[in-house]
Amino acid sequence: MSAPSAPAKMVPVATPASQPFWDGTQVGELRLQHCTDCGHHFLYPRLSCPSCGSRKTDWVRAAGRGRLYSFVISHMAAPGWQGETPYVIAVVQLEEGPRMLSNLVGVPADPAALVLDMPLEVTFQARGDKMLPLFKPAGAAQ
User: CATH: 2.30.130, 1.10.287, 2.40.128, 2.20.28. Which one for 16-62?
Assistant: First the structure.
């Protein structure tokens, strides 16, 4: 009898609205929606601007930089998680304005190592046929 295999990691599923975001991650870009009427950047994908209601939106490449807005350290593996525990779930305030939920890598999962407002930059990790945007301390090797 063979040993049971580990469950596969969950892979995000693109929707027609989110496909431009996932297309960007495949080429190492973090993309946000942008309102061409009021200039507001936003994330998650929507049909109209949450600031002014305009339907004149496009996708733009974000700088990929932000700051640690908030975090939680998870000591339990979420469904599909095959990484080490504990791990850091972070809310990142992007330079362009939106806040993004992601994982923080390249820093210990220790409150003493996690400083609110610390500068972060995006990095990408393969997950199935997708590339996930994660964040690491700015200037840190990954």
Answer: 2.20.28
pTM confidence score: 0.88
Two tokens at 35? 């309102």
Fold annotation for 63-142: OB fold (Dihydrolipoamide Acetyltransferase, E2P) (2.40.50)
pLDDT digits (tens, 9 = 90+) for 28-56: 999 999 999 999 999 999 999 999 999 99
Residue with tokens 């939920």: 101
pLDDT at 114 over 60: yes
Q: Cis omega (within 30 of 0) on the bond before 86?
A: yes
